[in-house]
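#structure-requests
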Amino acid sequence: MTHQLVMCLTCATEYDLVREDHGVVPLTSCPHCGGVSWTESQATEPALEWASRDVLTVDANDTLETARAAMIARRIQHLLVVENGVVIGVLAERDLLAALSPAADTPFATERDRATLRKRAHQAMSHSVIAVAAETTVGEAIRTLLANRIHCLPLLREDGSCEGVFTTTDALRWATRAAA
């Protein structure tokens, strides 16, 4: 009989899995929520192998109009905000929605509505960046996403520059491959 610590991708619960055989533990169902669970030994690949390496950034003083256009063009939900090449914040789609007037692009927009497009990225971004080292494993990256209830995890070099971004989509791609 073997015991292995397993973590659920859905509810982030860790539990002990007891198995009769000594083979590789497949992805299993969480006893708490029914979500997909994995063992630490299954998630030892570098997160960078699954992360987006072509990271889109905006300068802290770029306008929200510029940031929104970049997000729409690339069909992404997060931008890293940088100053002198160092990540200082994350601008998420929901940050934009909260900062921009819903009427800003309409024919009925007032000057006040249009002014929201001229706000700067640093005014709407999340200032507390949760990031990990570029060498982080998939398991640790997923654990960090779940523990902090975030969807975008910058993978940083020692100098603070970004090597890649690991997202919940990357975690799902990894889990789908691991389940196959």
